[in-house]
């Protein structure tokens, strides 16, 4: 049961908790954490309710910093199997042109629900396809986030450079710069909440160097500064992108980012794989965040993000599941495990720990989104929490509960709290019939996007 307003809830004696000085649990009041309780102690103040967390590993709610919700409708699509990024995109662009508002709403609902079940409490989605009829896509995302009670960063993505203009996407999925910028103003005015504890924030997200104009990049940066919002785009994902930037702009992607006014702490980038040492240093000095997408990077064989070097240089490093047609899931705790494994393969077994991977998915991701009110279990932070049990056979024999969560492959949270309210209880999302959702979503996917 969700605590009543004003109730002080003690989550007592967790099996393990990712917080210092909280072995005895934490106290939640309203939407915030108000006390960490030492092991063997009781809360300093009175409590109104107690939740026995002795079966649970408690971590901060995971923060997903890059996704494409609409792609849940084209998972494992035959047209895209076994392809790297550019051929993969060109195979799926014509398929995605059939996207409509009803299908998009189901895709968002399903993605948000999947993320919640994986322990995610804040989700950033990068939506950049706007076929005719889907002009109000961002409104739909906000409505679905509010209905489910998940914290959201909705990024108003865009593509304005079609094949006809020397870009990659077909004209049917693009909009002109003026239309895009006008809608960015609209959604910022309607939905962006810059205050601490915000449930919905907006970022501006031109898709990539090969899909938007220079003008759109520059004007988006100006607009973001005026509204106090963040900027997001794909960058450094593939060698093909490097070659495109050199051919079209006469410079590498990071130089282009600097030229259009994006090399700042307001920006976070998806993927960030193919940066050289000098570029890593420049990004770190500017405080540009990097969203590491380990699962998608492996599926598309794009390469390995230089997480350790970027973090050491000063860049916030977060995690994202990326598109659900290049992952092909919306499960952030699984991506934490993938980040650990890929990090160890890259840097060595002693260089990346389970705590590093969990930090990227929590505090690092929060920093990418410019937030210091989420991502940690501490007094004054939002009560966004993911609680996992270790009851499955895969965890039997595990000695370190926090390490087991990652190493043994946790995939589903037992309880999830967002802003002090339970949104997942006993492994089920509150108020969602997952069977009915799956049936409606899958039927729509096959009807709209089924292979001929």
UniProtKB/TrEMBL annotation:
It comes from the Bacteria. Its EC number is 3.5.4.32. Keywords: Hydrolase, Metal-binding, Zinc. The keyword Zinc applies. InterPro entries: Amidohydro-rel, Metal-dep_hydrolase_composite, Metal_Hydrolase, MTA/SAH_deaminase. Residues 57-422 form the Amidohydrolase-related domain. NCBIfam families: PRK08203.1 (NF006055). This is 8-oxoguanine deaminase.
């Amino acid at each position: 049961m969700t605590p009543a307003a004003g109730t002080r809830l003690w989550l007592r004696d967790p099996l393990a908790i990712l917080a210092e000085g909280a072995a005895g649990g934490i106290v939640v009041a309203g939407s915030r954490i108000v006390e960490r309780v030492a092991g063997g102690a009781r809360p300093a103040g009175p409590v109104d309710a107690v939740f026995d967390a002795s079966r649970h590993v408690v971590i901060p709610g995971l923060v997903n910093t890059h996704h494409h919700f609409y792609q849940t409708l084209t998972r494992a699509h035959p047209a895209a199997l076994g392809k790297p990024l550019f051929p993969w995109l060109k195979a799926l662009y014509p398929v995605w042109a059939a996207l409509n508002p009803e299908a998009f709403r189901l895709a968002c609902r399903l993605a948000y629900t999947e993320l919640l079940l994986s322990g995610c409490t804040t989700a950033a989605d990068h939506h950049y396809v706007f076929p005719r009829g889907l002009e109000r896509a961002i409104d739909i995302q906000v409505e679905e986030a509010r209905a489910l009670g998940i914290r959201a960063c909705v990024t108003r993505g865009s593509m304005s450079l079609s094949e006809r203009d020397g870009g990659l996407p077909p004209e049917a999925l693009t909009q002109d710069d003026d239309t895009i910028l006008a809608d960015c103003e609209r959604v910022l005015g309607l939905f962006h909440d810059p205050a601490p504890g915000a449930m919905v924030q907006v970022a501006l997200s031109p898709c990539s160097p090969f899909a938007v104009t220079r003008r759109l990049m520059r004007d988006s940066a100006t607009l973001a500064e005026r509204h106090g919002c963040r900027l997001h785009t794909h960058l450094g994902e593939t060698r093909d992108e490097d070659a495109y930037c050199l051919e079209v702009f006469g410079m590498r992607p990071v130089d282009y980012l600097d030229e259009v006014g994006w090399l700042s702490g307001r920006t976070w980038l998806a993927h960030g794989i193919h940066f050289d040492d000098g570029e890593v240093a420049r990004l770190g000095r500017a405080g540009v965040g990097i969203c590491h997408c380990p699962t998608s990077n492996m599926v598309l064989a794009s390469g390995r993000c230089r997480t350790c070097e970027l973090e050491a240089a000063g860049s916030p490093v977060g995690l994202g599941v990326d598109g659900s047609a290049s992952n092909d899931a919306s499960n952030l705790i699984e991506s934490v495990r993938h980040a650990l494994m890929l990090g160890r393969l890259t840097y060595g077994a002693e260089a990346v720990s389970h705590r590093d991977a969990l930090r990227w998915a929590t505090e690092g991701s929060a920093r990418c989104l410019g937030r210091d009110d989420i991502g940690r279990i501490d007094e004054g932070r939002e009560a966004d929490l993911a609680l996992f049990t270790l009851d499955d056979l895969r965890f039997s024999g595990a000695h370190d509960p926090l390490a087991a969560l990652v190493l043994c492959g946790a995939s589903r949270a037992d309880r999830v709290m967002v802003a002090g309210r339970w949104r997942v209880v006993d492994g089920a999302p509150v108020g969602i019939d997952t069977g009915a959702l799956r049936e409606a979503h899958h039927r729509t996917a096959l009807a709209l996007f089924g292979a001929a």
